[in-house]
Structures
1.
Amino acid sequence: MNILSIISPLIVVALLGFICTKTKWLAKEQLNALSKFTFSISIPAFLFYQMAKADFSDQVSPQLFAAFYLPVLTCYLIAWLISYFFYQGKKLSTDNTSAKKNSTASAVFALGASYSNNIIVGLPVLIAAMGEQVIGIIFLIVTFHSALLFALTSAIAARAGSKDGSSQFNWLTFTKHTLNNPLIISILSGLAFNLLGITLPNFLQESLALIAKPAIALALFILGASLAFYKVRQELTFISIACFSKLILLPSLVLLTSKYIFNLESLVVTVLVILSACPTGVNAYLIATNHQQHQQTIAGTVVLSTLVSVITIPLWLSFIL
């Protein structure tokens, strides 16, 4: 299989987005409007349509989730410990407040070192490489990916922010915010239609297909355009650590668990490894901004991991295909 022929069109589309923004041919306001349509309408339509008709036979198993999420949580823990003990911005001290701030910063850093850009990068790469047969597996992973890591990060930050050390994390609020996410809504709705055997009328199926058709291209275009607004400035050591964790360590562990421990079939192994090898998702930066911790580190990680993944993802594909 010619890996370059798979990756090149995706890179060209993302590069076009970067050029359009960098040359100011596309204003930030226009990009925001395009992003709103893409992530609120086109991609949800794509996810719902594909999820509703996906074949999940013989795909759902505890081993599938364990093979992916055990390495994810392992990398999260390793990154948390590295930041907790070595992050100079919030050194560990005898002062309880400093320790709690360090814990929040460490959770944010751990998110950046383990959270994958599965929808914008993983989905188009795997569809191009493996075809639509892998969509069901991808969505099974994506459904819980953001929810798990965002909940874990928010829970740690909430506990660190409480005066007495008890958790202030509100599961009800978190659930409401999660279910307000168009991507999560579309995946869960599509899954419900799939499991209940509900078939949409032809005109609705065709309408969804039309709206969904530009989703992947738009997502890649916006990814490239968004990179023009991020810069790698400071915290290069931590950026490098996060990128290594995200692009090398995590997929290596997923390969170990999926292929050698749980003995999953080769198609599933490929999907899980490539999803884990995706660069850090932009949403990790939004979480960092929300908690006012590691913003420069996560922004730099998003940029650098995305650029380096142009090399590492083809290498992973070549290695496992």
Note: The mean pLDDT is 84.
2.
Amino acid sequence: MERSLREVARGIVERLQAAGHAAFWVGGCVRDMLLGLEPEDYDVATSARPEEVEALFPRTVAVGRAFGVVRVIEGPHVVEVATFRAEADYQDGRRPGRVTFADARADALRRDFTVNGLFFDPVRGELHDWVGGRADLQARLIRTIGRPEDRFAEDHLRMLRAVRLAAQLDFRIEPATLEAIRHHARLLERISAERIRDELEKLFAPRCAARGLRLLQEAGLLEVILPEVAALIGCEQPPDHHPEGTVWEHVLRMLEAMPPEADRLLPWAVLLHDVGKPVTAQRDPATGRIRFFDHEKAGEEIARSLLERLRFPRKDIETLAFVVRHHMQFKDVPQMRKATLRRLLLRPTFPLELELHRLDCLGSHGKLNIYDLLVQERQALEAQPRLRPPLLRGDDLIALGIPPGPAMGRLLAELRDRQLAEELTTREAALAWVQDRWRDLCSRGIEQAAARENPPKAAPSRSRESTKPPPGNTPPASPRAGSDR
């Protein structure tokens, strides 16, 4: 029978201790266990050197030999085992220049926060606390081990990690630690975009996104990392549409209403959907009304730039940029033609767009009539399976002799509209319609090409020579003849 991750992690400690080495669970797994949470992973710290760890376990991968880190693998489970160490000479705000193997206490003192500096022996059931972590867990505080300035100078990303941990655990950041983050916030500009993004994705997990955004702003990091989102603070909105207040308050309300099981991209869609408002805001001088003309178009460009800067995957960038660009379409749903509405319902991004619309409503006026209508229409559409897959695809048109190109694209789009409007419901009817439509397009194309190649001759101009009458038919002289010309 396959052992659980917890059993595997305990077994690793047992084997290390049986071989004469000190070994403990450390870090987040101990913190979560004391908070009554199920750890997602387990880390082990030991006096054993990397080569001794590799000799004790049949499947290992050395991932940081200079740091004494070895991964021990059993079935689907992976546990990181690290030799006790002390670190010094940080020069790049990320890595130590010098690592020396040490004892358990020295290993605890090199760590970032007190709540992550606890060591637990699962064999003897003993907790070792050299940093005051247990008291801070009880007080629900995030505090650095030692001077916060020193810890943040060693690894600048720890400032963002403090905010992320406080958001995830619903803790407060200890005042001296918070003040140091504010003072040194600009150091994050030296950190790679990928590391920043990875922390932000954890910070903006649906269950803690609202807390995360507030803490990011409170700690002075929002302006440094996401200035486009910081611009939402104080951006006023018309009170008849947005009684909640500014765009910032609107976004916070949306994040608070988000279900914890939401799609991982939904918090980003919320953060970015109105990011174009600050740059498009206009106040009517006559009425004082605030308007944001084409803010969704400006927002798409800003969102794309922000996501590219953070090195998001291309698929995520395109999805979020599309959702931002089209989020205003939902107000037009009651007036949409059936085919247009069904196209919206069948978009791959529709589930994300629909949930964004729901939160958009809950974060402002609270009316869900369009959302309810869309849910009903989606259910009705799912009950008609013949409408979901297209009746014909590009290969079918090629088989009919229609070449790939813009004309084929237009044909497929028009065919899809007719299918969604239930004007065409079978493959046979679709084939017949395409053939007729293609013949019509070809005949019109031939006529247009012939017209381009053989333009109609211009009517002869009324020059004196052309208007001169044939001999013998000279009209009588008129005193106004010259003026007629």
Note: The first helix runs from residue 5 to 18.
